[in-house]
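Appendix B, Record 12. Input sequence as logged:
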Amino acid sequence: MRLQKYMAMCGVAARRKCEELIAEGRVSVNGVVRDVPGTTVEEGDVVTLDGQVIRPEEHRVVILYHKPAGEVCTVSDDRDRETVMDHFRDLPERVYPIGRLDYDTEGVLLLTNDGELAQKLTHPSSEVDKVYLARVSGRLSPEEVRRLRTGVLMEGEERMTWPARVRIVREGDIYSDVIVIIHEGRNRQVRRMIAAVGHQVVMLRRVRFGPIDLGSLQRGPWRYLTEEEVEKLHQL
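Logged structural output:
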């Protein structure tokens, strides 16, 4: 088995992130540092990350967390900001976020120790819908909505966004509330898409990731997904 796949099975991270950890020289197999992701692991090999032995997770879980604004989706932060992982350090499972939400964005964040599932849900080919409620400045014109629906060129990008599904749910002169559905995961994408048509996002909440929505979960609390919900994610 390839080393990065083994690490994902151990709940370290999705395979792409595991490849980065390997390339950084943080992973050893039987006491020898391996910095090439293609390294294979055999039964009985001892794999360590930063000197700590890692083993496959026996109990795989997925957690739904209503992330509030003001938290970063990293293990630690060099600016000493609160991180999502501060809430999950005492769990019996070693979980990590599936994808990310921006510091100033709230809403659905899934965490898991199932690296294969995380890889599947974050790979571009899966095209998993991510549904956002955005409060934007002013009133979007029909032409601006049309541009969002057909794709826009965001600042600093060389290719257009994929077409989004856009629906105005509340319209006003000061601000409007808009549902935006995308399946890409570019950095700060919804905010930059709205900026590309001349408006500013003043509040952003992800209300659904694939088939999993916030429901009545308030900001800050979390819960384990049910077996049925996890199966829906696998079916994607």
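DSSP finds six helices and 13 strands in the chain.
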